[in-house]
User: What shape does this take?
Amino acid sequence: MSTLDFGDEPLGARRRTLSFMVIVVGMLTFFVPLVTTNPPVIEMSRWSAFTIVMRMYEGKLPEPICERCGEPLIRSFLALPLMISVNYALMVLALVALCFPRSPGFLRGLSLSGGLYNLTDLRWQNTKWEFKETFYGQTYLRSAGHVHYHWLTDPLLVVMVTLFIISLKMDLDRPALNRELEVDRY
Assistant: This one.
């Protein structure tokens, strides 16, 4: 029987490996074209987060409005909606947390905050407006086009929820034989 325990027992090899694999899958979404635009923008309708950042750096997408947004590096940092950027930053922090075996509480906090942040966006739709501004400029207030991004945000939510579950499941680190013996005792 699996147990949930909020104690901060160190991450064992299995939980660290599972967490690492989940984070790698989440980071790979940065390079997969999961965002679509209709009508196409600069003759592209399928976009990855990486492509968005690169095209913004090159100045091919509309510049955000800020004091230093003419600089390519600043533009590229502002290319993705805040929720997407926060998720990737949390995944990088989770990778760092895996370097320290006594970090299940930190991993749990990162994944919980990332998951809750993703869920709040379902209600407020800030990401939708930010993507429209990225692709169509300030015309997002008018009917400029549609951006479909849930193929990107949904996997990021799944990654955060999965990391949260892994951080809670202490019995994932125990060998299968010990778990079978525990079941036989009861």
About this structure: Residues 13-174 form one domain.
